[in-house]
Amino acid sequence: WAIMRWIDMITWNDKYPKPEIMHKEFTSMLYFKYLMAVDGEREAFSRNYKKNNPIQPRIEGIAKNRIVCIDDEGSKGWKVLLESIIKASEAEIVFFPFHESTKSISKEKLIDNIKDFLLTDYHEHGGADCYIIDLRLHDDDFDEDVKYQELTGHIITDYIKSKELNPYNQVVIFTASNKVWNYEKAVKLTKACGYVIKESPEQNLSKSESKALFIKFSKDIRHACNLGFLRDLYCSLKKLETDFRYSENDLSLLYQFVELLNVDNNQKQKSLIRASTLTLYAFLESFIDCRFDIRSTDLIRKDCDYCIKWLGKFYVKYENKDKNEIIL
Hints:
The protein is an alpha/beta fold. It has 13 helices and eight strands.
């Protein structure tokens, strides 16, 4: 239902050709006809409407980013559709390989398989700039009594953001669950940077509502990719712990700096930016003061403009107390 809605809504052209998904396979099904009868005809996207309200089949601002998608309905058309959109966006998308046999295994085995896939992908490719995760990935997830924390997608999201991979991996929840409004608060607990509903027959959305969902999907994917630098910052801190043998306690202020940047700040609040900057400068002062003789004691205690110039343009010379080495 949602796949056909997006395909009908998007303005395809020679540069971005319409993906080959057989509409008749869906519309000829008795269940589809039943839904149309019960929920009513959908508000169609006429040629004139699409001319006046074009929707490009691409997401601006995610070029060269890498996306991993875990969706058990990929083979039903989502894989073809999302590949078309992401390819047009000059980005890359990789799917966890769901097969018919995958559905027959236990939920625990499926979770282990997905974790193995993610860990291998992390070691071979460094993971992804954005993970797209469906909440219900196993038949057991459709049990009426299942709790949010027990949903396969929630468990996988927790793993993606664990220290085994990277706590600053960015996740967008993409689900057709009719309980998603009840899950909104719980999804935020996972620190997912976005969630989008797959349109369903029960909603029977208007043209403007369907368009708004696609725009939100695009916005959340772009937002996740833009936060990809946090993953790299965290990797750099872990590298400092390993290569230079600084403890996590030594780098605690830097971890706080990364965590502050991780706060979803769509409002561009100046207080948050100032807190992040202050934490970074506090780390620099504390770290250098503990390990180096500062020849010009007020060098990094100048006003913020001077500090930024120093960070961005100048190499400053320090003397290591233990080995009398000059550090540039």
